[in-house]
Backbone:
């Protein structure tokens, strides 16, 4: 899915994210491209980040936070370590 929630309202976004999570929980592979990190962290098991068209990282979502993902998107690298405490935004 390429930016499946980009033009949706709050209710429709929640419906799409619920569907994505339900499909994944049923064992289906779901690939979702999104710049909306709130959506990504809500449903993703893994995060793949591109930088200048090349794969910068593929990591389990539990091993990264939003700042690490932003670092990877904007510079291709990050020296940060994810905070082990759950984010208030999650």
Residues:
């Amino acid at each position: 899915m390429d930016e499946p929630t980009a033009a949706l309202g709050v209710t429709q976004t929640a419906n799409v994210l619920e569907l994505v999570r339900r499909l994944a929980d049923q064992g289906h592979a779901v690939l979702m491209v999104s710049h909306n990190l709130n959506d990504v962290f809500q449903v993703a098991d893994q995060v793949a980040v591109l930088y200048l068209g090349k794969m910068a990282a593929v990591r389990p979502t539990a091993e990264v936070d939003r700042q690490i993902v932003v670092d990877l998107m904007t510079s291709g690298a990050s020296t940060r370590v994810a905070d082990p405490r759950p984010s208030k935004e999650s």
In short: The chain has a mean pLDDT of 91. The radius of gyration is 13 Å.
